[in-house]
Amino acid sequence: MAVIALVTGFIAYTLTVFSSSFYEHYQIAHVEPDAVIVLTGGKGRLSSALALFKEADAKFLFILGVSKTATLESIFSQGELSGVKTENIVLDKASQTTYENALYAKDYLDERTVESVVLVTSNYHMKRALFIFESVLPANINIIPYAIGSENFQLNDWWLHPKSLKLAFAEYLKYGWFKLTLQLFHFFNAQ
Q1: What share of the chain has pLDDT > 70, as a percent?
Q2: Domain of 89?
Q3: What is the mean pLDDT of residues 103-124?
Q4: Is the separation of the CB atoms in 75 and 66 below 8 Å?
Q5: In a domain, 99, yes or no
Q6: In sequence order, which residues have a C-beta less than 8 Å from that of residue 189 and are 6 or more positions away?
Q7: Residue 164 domain flag
Q8: What is the CATH number of the domain that holds 32?
Q9: Has residue 138 got a pLDDT over 70?
Q10: Average pLDDT over residues 114-119
């Protein structure tokens, strides 16, 4: 019975998450976000976030979850950083999970006036990341998802590719686990 529930839940999750409409890129130039937040871990995320930071003329770029030894110069080329206000780029070297990323961003944003952020991560990771950030950040901050295609995940016919299927199932389990722990937290705090 548990296996049937797990498989049924996975199918329902993938039907909503991996529909193309969930991953349509927003016209960021029209949004004018206060900040761009990017979660490390996938190819293309950082360069896309830097381009959005420049294009949208955002106040801050938060790069969450970089290694302890990372510098802007080790992440981007001089050409990419040309004309960029590097003093407005924040490298988070402390957080290691998506939840910790959100907590770090919240602490930083609490000290500043921010009404909207663009959240950049890989397409397969966006549903969980968006849910976590919406759960952690204040409700008055508009979070705009910006999913990046990944070499590791084939959005079209992902179920035919073992690596994509594995990533999808792992994200489903992590999403479910976080949702369950959040509900338990609220339940026990309400008592």
Answers
A1: 91
A2: 23-148+177-190
A3: 91
A4: yes
A5: yes
A6: none
A7: no
A8: 3.40.50.620
A9: yes
A10: 93
Element (H, E) at 61: strand 60-64
pTM of the shown model: 0.86
C-alpha 168/C-alpha 15 separation (Å) is: 11
The token pair at 84 is 């960029």
Domain count, the chain: 1
Identify which of 130, 124, 61, 69 has the alpha carbon closest to the alpha carbon of residue 98. 130
Residue given tokens 């663009």 in the structure block: 118
Instruction: Please tell me the distance from the alpha carbon of residue 181 to that of residue 117, in angstroms, as a whole number.
Output: 25
- Give the sheet arrangement for strand 60-64, strand by strand: 89-92, 60-64, 35-39, 116-122, 142-148
Query: Confidence class of residue 100 from pLDDT cuts 50, 70 and 90?
Result: very high
**Which residue from 125, 88, 120, 94 is spatially nearest to 107, judged by alpha carbons?**
94
Indicate the residue type of 19.
S
For 93: left if phi > 0, alpha if psi spans -120 to 50, otherwise beta; the answer is alpha
Write the CA distances from 145 to 9, 11, 15, 23, integer angstroms: 23, 22, 18, 8
Task: Measure CA 107 to chain center.
Answer: 17
